[in-house]
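Archive transcription. Copying these from loose printouts into the bound notebook so they stop getting lost. Printout 1 of 2:
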Amino acid sequence: MPARADQSTLTQEDTAGRLRRAVNRLQRRLRQESLGGLSPAQASALGSVSRYGSPTLGELAAIEQVQPPTITRIVASLTEAGMVTRVADVNDRRSARVRITPAGERALEQMRTRKNAFLLRRLDQLSPVEQLSLIHI
């Protein structure tokens, strides 16, 4: 195992690399902590539907950067789980829009609550000085 670098000798490049790795680990851990039975793709799509209102399937595919058949499968599974509904577009009856349901909103809120609880547990493990240093990131 390589020796740990003395904090005072770290370059900005070293610090940037360490920060990137820490953020990536945190992101993976929060995703694991919070999905509540949804796949990462389902959770992401659900969040996007909540954020963007009622996107069309094509708009949602572009937002999520996936192909239309993929978003169709994701939306079908979310619809089956009662988290979104598909409604006809008022301007183009051939097109469907996706809306989040109250159950979908509750699921998102539970995911956020679990993420916050995880972060609170981790923050409790830090000293007050370490907690303050996070504010400057």
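Printout 2 of 2:
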Amino acid sequence: MISSGASLVEPEKNAAFEKAVSDAIGIEFKNIYDTKVFDRVTLMAAGGEKIDVVLSNTTGFFKTTKVSQEILPEWIEDTTYIKQIPEEFWTVQRREGKTWGVPYRYYSAWVTWVRQDWLDALGLSVPATVDDYVNVARAFTKNDPDKNNKNDTYGFSASNQWDALNQFFWPFHNAFVKYPMEFAYDTDLNKYFSVWLTPEYKEYMRWLAGIYAEGLIDPEAPTNQHTNYYDKFYAGKVGFLTGFAHEASVHVDKLKAVDPNAKMVPIAPPKGIAGNGYTAALSDIGFAIMQSCDNPQGVLKYFIDWAHSNEGYNMFCWGPEGMNWKKENGVAVKTASDPSCGLSPQHVILKDTFESWVPTRQEDQEAFDVNAANIRWKMQPYTLPDCPDNRSIDFNMKSLELWTKMLMGDVDVDKGFEQMQAAYKDTKMDEWMDQLNADLSWAKEK
């Protein structure tokens, strides 16, 4: 197996993990860790080396590198745990009616936290609507919520990594626009279109540029690294934080290390003109079986299915006993300083489908509960076919550059959208969309 895991970059830990898995399933198991997993798989496949399975972003293996193989429905029916996976999780693993990966037992779930002690200090209630969020952010920015007699706080901040800040404002995007992706399918009109060119998205950008101009967003947000963004929240410079639900206990510990009296609580995404916002996103992390695998059905039934059992799940999340954790009075206690213990981050699991003996901290459970109550699965009804060239990538890059300029006021929103329309035509994305919409016969399944 090849993985892009976390703490298993350490050879000794990886060897302990390999032995524990081999002992558990009775099959010789070898894990190759590589951060550049796609490059590694491609090179090994080209060199004739056999790889059975990869744990990573599975969509890339059948959409880009095309080195994985189809997983047949009857194989899944012959499993114990895999066939229990909720249907929604399979969406991003399927293409043209075929399954190309097995979703792993967690999802990339976004949730927003607010400083409850700041709300209490200013006599404010937990925000519910977009306007509520803005009013709270305004108070956090202008009314000295930490009572240090300094004008040094903001409502919002963000990181410049991935989607040019956009992911940190997804809860608001999804309150303005009912489609969460850059490209979507309209079931009423039976056509594909670019979400970033819609009037609703323009209003979202106009709103976002307005609160940035008012000073409610950390002015360094467009240049913040991921760590800067989190550190500013821990240091009491920002009142809202958007991040992964499974990192709740990590955020709480780091916040309290700076201010023991601080309190952060997860809150529901804002209600807006498109309904309730939402912060959850489906993840395409999973197991892809490679074409070089001699016994794909056996790998699925005896290894991947075991990885979805409680024993396998805990092994992949926490590693073998004694490596990153130990038992004290029958309870698992983490001993590794790194929040990532096994192959996957320490994360919240689907309590209504799977159970784990690893205790979940209250902070993690609260974040999970808020997120689970606000999940809106808004996947495209049909999977967008691969663009035969780089035009969609070129359009996305130009759009994201304009997104940042509109946010910061370097480009007027109306002018920015005119330039976005021009980029849509310059990259010939309009021709690609016209071609897709002229023939939707390939779109068979959700």
